[in-house]
Amino acid sequence: MSRVVLYMSMSVDGFIAGPDDAPGRGLGVGGERLHAWLAHGGVDPASYRPTDDAGATVFDEVMATGAVITGRRTFEFADGWAGDHHDGVPIFVLTRTAPAEPAPGSAHYATEGIASCVAQAKAAAGGRDILLHGAATAQECLRAGLLDEMELQLVPVLMGRGRRLFDHLPPGHVELDLVRALDGRDVQHLRFRVRSEG
């Protein structure tokens, strides 16, 4: 059964991008540091596969996902991954209103809310996990009880400013169970299961 899994590189103080992120500069000023655990790649997504075992394990899991859910902001800042995040899997872009232009490649605009978006991604994923991108979309999934797991790449840096992953969650606790910790090259890969209510 498909699980919705947030994959995100994050500084110790909770930032996923540096300041002044924008289209063409999706990681903001200095935010590339958060992705230094990846190999220096090119056009092919597989070219970013790390050489260390821990990083390669996490990367291979990302590449094995059967669908992608992302927020429109993340999608636009990444230039829509030219319509193909990896291996032609469907990309579901959560947005309130779809633009007049159709989404590129294997991307689709999902305008009926997070529950519908997740249902569409699960139907398309063929039983494989679903890769979740974007802070606002992750928060929306958490609030709706639709996020199953988080794979956080904790990078040993304090960025001080930028875009935080969990800035706008409502009061209260979201309990997590640590299910795996892998020490990588200058990064720790932490996988958490989100506890369901009750």
Write the layout of secondary structure elements.
Elements: E1 4-11, E2 15-17, H1 53-63, E3 67-71, H2 72-77, E4 91-94, E5 107-110, H3 114-124, E6 130-133, H4 135-144, E7 149-155, E8 163-164, E9 176-184, E10 187-194
Parallel strand pairs: 1-6, 1-7, 3-4, 3-6, 4-5
Antiparallel strand pairs: 2-8, 7-10, 9-10
Task: Walk me through what this model shows.
It is a single chain. Helix content is 19%, strand content 27%. The protein has an 8-stranded mixed sheet with strand order 5-4-3-6-1-7-10-9, with helices on both faces. A two-stranded antiparallel ribbon has the order 2-8. It is of the alpha/beta class and 198 residues long. The model has no long low-confidence stretch (mean pLDDT 93).
- Reading side by side through the largest sheet, how are the strands ordered? 5-4-3-6-1-7-10-9
How much β-strand is present in the residues? 25-35%
Q: What summary fits the major beta sheet?
A: 8 strands, mixed
User: Between the first and last Cα atoms, what is the distance in angstroms?
Assistant: 21 Å
Q: Which sequence of SSEs, written as H and E, runs from N to C?
A: EEHEHEEHEHEEEE
Question: Briefly, what is this?
Answer:
This protein is an alpha/beta fold. The protein has 4 helices and 10 strands, in the order E-E-H-E-H-E-E-H-E-H-E-E-E-E.
Describe the structure using short key phrases.
198 residues; eight-stranded mixed beta sheet; 27% strand; alpha/beta; 4 helices
